[in-house]
Amino acid sequence: MAKELGIGMIGYGFMGRAHSNAYKRLNDFFPVEHRPALKVVCGRNAEKAKAFAEVWGYERVETDWRKVVEAPDVDLVDIGSPNDTHKEIAVAAAHAGKMVLCEKPLARNVAEAEEMVRAVEDAGVPNMVWFNYRRVPAIALARQIVDEGRIGRPFHYRATYLQDWTISPDVPQGGPALWRLDIDVAGSGVTGDLLAHSIDTAMWLNGPITRVTARTETFVKERKHAVTGEVKPVGIDDACMFLAEFANGSLGTFESTRYARGRKNYNTFELNGAGGSLYFDLEEPEYLQFFEYIQKQSGKKTESHLTGWRKIHVTNSEHPYMDRYWVPGTCIGYEHTFLNALADFVMGIESGKPTQPDFRNALQTQKVCDAVLESARTGRWVETGVEL
């Protein structure tokens, strides 16, 4: 008999939809013992929260997140609300003995993230951060290739994450839709919103980042606030570029901006090593490109005229996660990355082997983000303090 997993969803926006879809489809694709039950969704706007609940099938609506945390039928609190709410909700949920899932970035800064880590670890509650790109099958395959030693000694890691939705100076800041442009709510701009994904993926594939030097820019210095109408200085970073040193001796370059005209969600990485290279582009998520360098062996002739990049269509049943979906050659989408992440989390609580990234792992990404912003302020190399 399935075990009910009572879900309390905080937030009804973009991430609330993505997470809710995962809860509804989990048992359709993954043979886990727990069955999510959508108990309550919480949002500050009661009418919008009610409309969301009716579409997605939540049993009731709350406008005070504390009632969700205290609810006896809620086993798991999912934080899909703006960044400035993450710490308070997560700490309270942990104290109440709830499992806690949190959208990225974990917090606005390291101090908040450390408090959240202490809370979940002291309470001993299962926890995870939704760095969903780890669950793209092609990226999971990249990790498998690295683990198999096919890259060899790593030399370079380079990442880009480009968008274009804030170019117009008429775009306001703040409010329910544009809180990512409000420094008090978001904590940072593209560094926390976009590069947090790139940093998490980089350290998952290539190990800890030890120090960074960065440059940020805010192109539009003032914007009208969406709620008050007041023209205020913009505190977030519109663009960020930084150099990184990894603990394994390799070098990294990272670039992110919301001012790349024509780029909507352009997220790429390339890893170069002595034995091979990997390349991924989120705009073609079903593909992973792999170059393998094979040296001449005794008695065998290297066919150098056939050397080149392989474009692997990651849809076979032997590829990560794909045995749960369709026949080879058919693709899954963005929404499935959240489903895969949820499945890993639930299998983790059932097996007793917690999935990653948990709060402590996500704290390491937060340390890099803070070091990047500090370097941009000071113009100096900054040690990240990431656990080695």
Query: What is the total tally of β strands?
Result: 17
CATH fold description of the largest domain: Dihydrodipicolinate Reductase, domain 2
Helix count from the secondary structure assignment: 10
Q: What is the architecture of the largest domain at the second tier of CATH? A: 2-Layer Sandwich
What overall geometry do the principal axes of the alpha carbons give? globular
Computed CA radius of gyration, to the nearest angstrom:
21 Å
Chain-averaged pLDDT: 96
Return the structural class. alpha/beta
**Terminal CA distance:** 42 Å
CATH class of the largest domain: Alpha Beta
Neighbour order of strands in the largest sheet? 16-15-14-13-7-12-11-8-17
Largest sheet geometry: 9 strands, mixed
Q: Roughly how much helix do the residues carry, as a percent range?
A: 25-40%
SSE succession: EHEHEHEHEHEHEHHEEEEEEEEEHHE
